[in-house]
UniProtKB/TrEMBL annotation:
Ranges for domain Polycomb group protein RNA binding region: 248-301
CDD domains xrefs: MBT_SCMH1_rpt1, MBT_SCMH1_rpt2
Major subcellular location class: nucleus
InterPro entries, per the entry: Mbt (IPR004092), MBT_SCMH1_rpt1 (IPR047279), MBT_SCMH1_rpt2 (IPR047280), PcG_chromatin_remod_factors (IPR050548), SCML2_RBR (IPR033763), SLED (IPR021987), SLED_sf (IPR038348)
Comp. bias (Basic and acidic residues): 453-464
Source organism per UniProt: Nestor notabilis
Superkingdom, natural source: Eukaryota
Record field: compositional bias (Polar residues): 441-451
Name of the protein: Polycomb protein SCMH1
Biased segments, Basic residues type: 249-261, 282-297
GO MF: chromatin binding; histone binding
Region ranges (Disordered): 213-328, 441-536
GO annotations of cellular component type: nucleus
Amino acid sequence: FSGHFTWEKYLKETCAIPAPAHCFKQSYTPPANEFKISMKLEAQDPRNTTSTCIATVVGLTGARLRLRLDGSDNKNDFWRLVDSAEIQPIGNCEKNGGMLQPPLGFRLNASSWPMFLLKTLNGAEMAPVRIFHKEPPSPSQNFFKTGMKLEAVDRKNPHFICPATIGEVRGSEVLITFDGWRGAFDYWCRYDSRDIFPVGWCSLTGDNLQPPGTKVVIPKSPLPASEVNSEKPSMHSSTKTGLGQQQGQRRRKTGKKRGRTTKALIHHPMPTPSKSVEPLKFPRKRGPKPGSKRKPRTLLNPAPTSPTTSTPEPDTSTVPQDAATVPSSAMQAPTVCIYLNKNGSTGPHLDKKKVQQLPDHFGPARASVVLQQAVQACIDCAYHQKTVFSFLKQGHGGEVISAVFDREQHTLNLPAVNSITYVLRFLEKLCHNLRSDNLFGNQPFTQNSHMQRSHEYDHDRYLPDRSSSLDGTLQGPGRGTKRYSQDFPPYSAPLSPKLPKNDRHPLEGETFVLGDGLPGPLEPRLDPMDSALNSV
């Protein structure tokens, strides 16, 4: 999709109609999001829905909350709407005769849970009852029709909401197909799912609507995505079939997610067994065990996550990789970590208060992911996002950052990077232009740690005072902003193979930050990188 994305223009060009608001289990007037980072509340464990746990708000976007269960690791964050019935104020469970439980995978000994609970709640900021909202009622029936447009959560990247189309209707189920992604990310869900929204929802709530992808759009996807996240666990095998495919065949696809890659390249539905199409499908079969197949199957067959009733933020180690879009160099990309100097000078362009709300470090993660998080943080903390955006220019093959100015959303591809040297060089030039030198380093800075230390920072921009971000229509360039990940970062910003091209790496000497002056000398914390940077 070329140019800036607006629903009005897009609907006209595609001759499509939006799904009416009465089709959705969403409030006609989106609820206000008055939650703040670090607030505590009670939430259902998405991996064990019979348990009610203590959760902490670690992210905000639009009318949604990014939650992390206290006592669990940071690889299972999940999103909930502020009017979800699955979140309640602290004390609600006890009031109704229940008992707070440790989350699935509680990191400590189970016997230490009572003491852990006391320490967790002692002095914590509880989310007040008044900011919770009543969940809206479900529609009386499934009113969706094939071809209707809507906005939907990408379940591989739950922090993204994207333009989508109803690909098929089957009883109480609907097939969500993402525009411009050839079926690779589609999924089935109930018509009353909280993960689907009417056209214009993001512009009303201030959430970040991604533009459609750039791949060939199939009017009716032959297969839903092989998602492990299903609206109902009991429907996992039976409801996620394609156009008449057998249940057993779909189960093999669920276990071997490579199936949907080759299927997405076929422009006609094939309800017949997969072995009759082309050799690329062989990895999907159950039987072959030749030595030549073992290595790619090890890379391309991650263990599935536990089924859930909603959309938790999946562990990136379980995100399937698309062999058609992931270059081999990315599969061996090292993890890097960049530290933020909150006590340093933020310069005239960055709001120091917002900088204080950022995490102490970005990563460890792939270099391109860390670069995206750091640059996006600079944009989000800017007094005027346009200023920071103007210092950047279009790269190739990297992650996507976005900024909102002139009443429009603008996105830009960063360069593909694969080492901490590239990341530091890029950030050094950017900070030099922002006059905020010594903002980033490759070693921890000594600073006050009273703020949250390890909250992830991703494209969802959870800064609480982001009220000026999105008003009117959301717009952005047509490059899709989904991306893949191969390593195992300890935070859970899931990244999937939604990048049209990611097979080019820039020359080390290429300049990606605009500005007349050469970058200044490296700050003392970057001294260990001097020799490496001088050779770039």
